[in-house]
Every structure is written in C-alpha cells, then in structure tokens.
Amino acid sequence: MNKALYSNLVFDLSRKGCTGYSLPHYDYGKAAGELPENLRRQTPPSLPEIDEPSAVRHYTNSSNNNFGVDTGFYPLGSCTMKYNPKINEAAVAMAGIAPLHPLQPVETVQGALRVYRTLEKALSEIGGMAEFTLNPFAGAHGEYTGLMVIRRYHMARGDEARRRVIVPDSAHGTNPASAAMAGFDIVEVKSMPDGTVDIADLDSKLDETIAAVMMTNPNTVGMFEKGIPEIAEMVHKAGALLYYDGANLNPMLGIARPGDMGFDVMHINLHKTFSTPHGGGGPGAGPVGVRAGLEEYLPNPRVSELPDGTLAIDFGADAFGRVGAWLGNFTVYIKAFAYILSLGSENLMRVGPLATLNANYIMHSLSDLYEQPIAGPCKHEFVFDGLRDKSTGVTTLHVAKALLDYGFHAPTIYFPLLFHESLMIEPTETESRPTLDAFIATMRKIALEASAEPDTVKNAPYTTPISHPDEDEAALNPVVTYRQLCAKQI
Ligand SMILES: *Cc1c(COP(=O)(O)O)cnc(C)c1O
Prior knowledge:
This protein is 34% helix and 10% strand. The protein is α/β, with parallel strands linked by helices.
C-alpha cells in the first residue's frame, strides 16, 4: 500500500480548493427567516478538502485496519469476543422487532413480552435459579443489581449489620467496584498458588457483618473451584449469601448449574456467552438470577403472565427499585434467544465441553515451549507464565506482538496478576481444529524463533501500520483529537 496516498488522517490528505461533493447553487441568507447575521460563522469551517475516491479509500482502508472475530482468530475468548452467528442479526432486524418502541401499549407488544418472559425462564433453567430479571445493561450492572437484591434481603430481615462483601483477590475488577457502588465495604480473601480461593482465609473472615461472598467459577485462571459445596455451607451458616459472577458462563453450559452448587444470586453476560458482538463497549445485558425466596426483591419492572395468558408489565412493592430505563436492552435479548433456540438444549450442552476441550488442546500442545504454572487440566481458559526459555529476554509482550504479523489477535497479557509473564488464552468452543492447529503452529514458531533469533521476535510486528508506540505515553497523554495547524497558530 502506498502510505503517502493512504494516510492515517484524512486531514493530512487535504489539498486547498479540492472538493469531493457538489450541491445545487443556493443563495444562502437571501430568503426570509434565515439565520440572523450574528449567529452565522464568519470563517468557513476548517474541513479536509479531498476528492471523493480518496475519501472513500481513506475510510475503507482505515476500516481494514480493524481486527475482529469475523476477520481472524481471537485467543481472547468469550470474555472479549466469541463468534456470533449471523442469523442472530437477521432475527433482530425482523420487521416485527426492529421498529418496536418501549412506549407502545402493552397489548401491541405481546409477542415481544413473550420472548422476554421465555428468555427469563430459559436462563433460570440454564442457571438453576428460580427467577431472572433481564433489566441490567452489563455485567457490572448485573453485579450491582444482584448485590442490591442481597442488601434488600438482609434489610427485610432486619439484619442491618451486614455491610461487608467478601471478594477473592483474583476476581474481576468489577466485583469490588460493584459492591462499593451498592454501599458495601470490601473484604479481600486470598488465593492459593493454583488460583483457587483459600478456604481457611475465607472462613476466618466470615462473621455477622458479611452480607455476601462473590465467587467466579471456573475462576480467572480457568480453574474449577472444587471447594464450592464446602464454601456454600460455610457462607450460609454464617448468614451470608453466595454470589456467582457468571459473566463468562461458557465453560459451564451443559456441565453444571450455579443454582445446584448452592449459589443464591448470579448474573450472566449475554454479550459474552450468548452471542452479542460487543466490541467498542456495547451493547450488553447482564441478567440477574435468584434462588427461590429472593424473587420479590428483584428490580422493577417485571413482565408477568395474567391468568388469561396475556402478559403485563408490573411494578412490585418489595423490589429494591429500578436499575434502568424500560425493560433493558431488547435487541440483546433477541440475539440471545435466537442463539439459544438455534442451538437447542442438546447443542447448548456441548458449549462447555467443547470450550474446555479446545483450551486443553492448545495448552497441551504448547506447554513444552511455554511455562505452564498451574497443572492441568484447565476449563475454558488457561494461563502461561511466558516462554520456558527465559534466557533470551523475549517477554510475553513480544510474543503477543509477534502474533500480529501472522493474522492473530494478541491474547490477554499480564493478567491475572498472579504471574509475572501472564499470557492468557481462551479459544472458545466455536473454533475449528485447523484454526487451533494454525494458532499452535504459529505460537511454536515464535517460541523457537525467540531462542534462535531473539531480536527478530523483539522487533515484531513488521506488517502493522504502527508497531512500537510508547505505551506509557499513550495511556497517560492520549492524543484523541486532531489539532489543526492553521496559519494563524503557526
Ligand atoms: C466481563 C466480566 C465482568 C464485567 O462485565 P461487563 O459487561 O464488562 O460489565 C465481570 N466479571 C467477569 C468474570 C467478567 O469476565
């Protein structure tokens, strides 16, 4: 590509007097009712002046610099992006769905409410919970909602002293943040060297001031918390509730249900596990499920079925309040519903096993060259602690960058913080054997090259528009607007 012709900034392509449009001649300001003189700009806006084909090429080439799950393999997994079947988009665009408005009379949206209610029931079945609300708009929002349910539950029992929530040090950062938003103080519980929760440490922290314990299972390093039945018993005996962070339910689908393990409240990220593209921060949905006995505290509004079979929108008196506008993010529900229906219960139950198989296949195929700090098998994801050959100075960051030249997105790096050179891989269930093999071959090639010619790996990538930006500078002083060097300013 000719870099001079296809600049990163359309302003750099601007040529004075060049135009890419034509509009009919118009005697601006002549007709009655035009903008008053004092509101009109005195100098024309400083816009890029560029011919039409160059403008089209500029934007098309910029868009081609994007990486997505539709253009290549993402070892970042369902937490970031698993493949989202295109038929779900067709479902959302259907004529009966796309134009719906939340202010329509209830009798005109019975079908939409039926989908809503059916999805709530499907998620209850999947999670082993008594009831779900679809109201929350994100995973963190779901955590907040679930914790408010817990808070309301304790208050309804007159148990006002429970103002603290226990969160493992390996938890997703949203866990402590959501607990704080819900008005709780945070108590941290330690992890064992294998990433699972230290049960003795947890036991020592449980008392009558604890409202809830938040858990993620499998945890952030992809290990199954084998102590859950014991933990559930301890937590309940102490009068607290057990919260399940099911943002990433992928490894559990078809294997086990949080409700059966003793969890009282949970959330699911539909935009991770149930197929909604959420690159760039949206849209999402973080439905919250509760076990029997907590339903009445779920937020308003609720969709309920009247005796004659019609559906209504309710506002319960015992709900802790509402968490957002209307009923939530409806298009995300349609995609999740289409995804669940198109897989059917039989195939939905294969998601967890296949995600687990794919992760173990990659881990096993690379662990002679990459350091595996936790003995397997893993669940849906695993962590390497950099390359085995530590003599070369090639770090996890170098490996991640080198992958870009081969058309793979970089995996999650330097998280979790348990290891110095964390490199976390989650392939998801949708990737084929040839894709996994190509990724494994590339990772092996990079590892062998790192030992033979370390500088070649350290200087990668070679094919991307930029290769080694100053990351500290970019994070601390991001330049996100184009400052024009007008004649006056120079
Ligand atoms: C993604 C994630 C969250 C937060 O979900 P958002 O929709 O980004 O707010 C919480 N917990 C875990 C384990 C996650 O992976």
